[in-house]
Amino acid sequence: MRLLLGLAKAIDVLSEGVGRLIAWLTLLVALLSAGNALMRYGLSYSSNAYLEAQWYMFSLIFLLGGAYALKKNAHVRIDLIYGRLSQRTQAWIDLLGTLLFLIPMALGVLYLAWPWAMTSLAIRETSPDAGGLPRWPIKLALLLGFALLALQGLSELIKRIAFLAGVYALAEEKGRGVE
């Protein structure tokens, strides 16, 4: 179990690092969005590349930020019942949800998106819009995002199993989360 908890810790560190990058990317996309608006309305200048870069960065925030959100227990959910349950029951719900839904969904998306992304990479797909950006990098980011999500799901699964076995403590984070 110690080896598995070490793996979970390494995955958590990876998710934290990607989360820090996403925070900076959020600032960058906000600046780019403001710059686009100023140029479009103030200077009557617009560029498909700037608009697509904004779209790509926004996509990256959500694609790559999913694993970080899972690690921080920040995914949206309705807690009418879950929050009132014991930590042990919550761990069982998280374990079953991860095993039955999260990991199969993430692996399913990877399986289905792989040929689509690889074809895009092979042909070096670009935007059909004049002055647009290459499309293949954002399609590869889809694979990366769901791979990170599956890995963080594995980390959460390991931690829940260890908690249920009595060898790991789930810490309260911001009133409810799991550390």
UniProtKB/TrEMBL annotation:
Listed transmembrane segments: 21-41, 53-70, 91-116, 136-154
Subcellular location per the Swiss-Prot or TrEMBL entry: Cell inner membrane
Keyword match Membrane: yes
The organism's place on the tree of life at top rank: Bacteria
Keywords: Cell inner membrane, Cell membrane, Membrane, Transmembrane, Transmembrane helix, Transport
Annotated ranges, domain Tripartite ATP-independent periplasmic transporters DctQ component: 31-161
Cited InterPro entries: DctQ, TRAP_DctQ
Topology versus the membrane: Multi-pass membrane protein
Family as reported in the entry's similarity comment: Belongs to the TRAP transporter small permease family.
PANTHER family to which the protein is assigned, alphabetical: 2,3-DIKETO-L-GULONATE TRAP TRANSPORTER SMALL PERMEASE PROTEIN YIAM (PTHR35011), SLL1102 PROTEIN (PTHR35011:SF4)
Protein name listed in UniProt: Tripartite ATP-independent periplasmic transporters DctQ component domain-containing protein
Naturally occurring in which organism (per UniProt): Thermus aquaticus (strain ATCC BAA-2747 / Y51MC23)
